[in-house]
Structure prediction request, 136 residues.
Amino acid sequence: MTAIQSSTFLRRVLLLDAVSSGAMGVLLLAASGALAGLLNLPEELLSEAGLVLVPFALAVGFIGTRTQLSRICVWAVIAINAVWAIDSVVLLFTGWVQPSLLGYAFVIGQAAFVAVMAELQFIGLRKATATVPAHS
Prediction:
């Protein structure tokens, strides 16, 4: 397995992803009931999303603090973000939820933000210059 010498740009994008995912996770866990009424989204969906986001944020934060990053770990973060963004939009077309107008804006807005994170991480990974063997 190879590691990349991460750029400041890639580390900052990973840390922004970690902070924003963590904040969203805590918000969803703490206020899923109030948000459910406001967004007309199931409370269980919001709280379970929060349960997923908190450990994801911790993992991405850990990855983002490394000076040498595993290429596979960064690709995993990019893939998870891409799937999250796509699934968020697909959710709106399943008929499983009937969000309010604010709910639609919330789902689309967070999906767009996550997609931008994935794209910026991809750019950062592509620009990584040094490739070094990973330490076992």
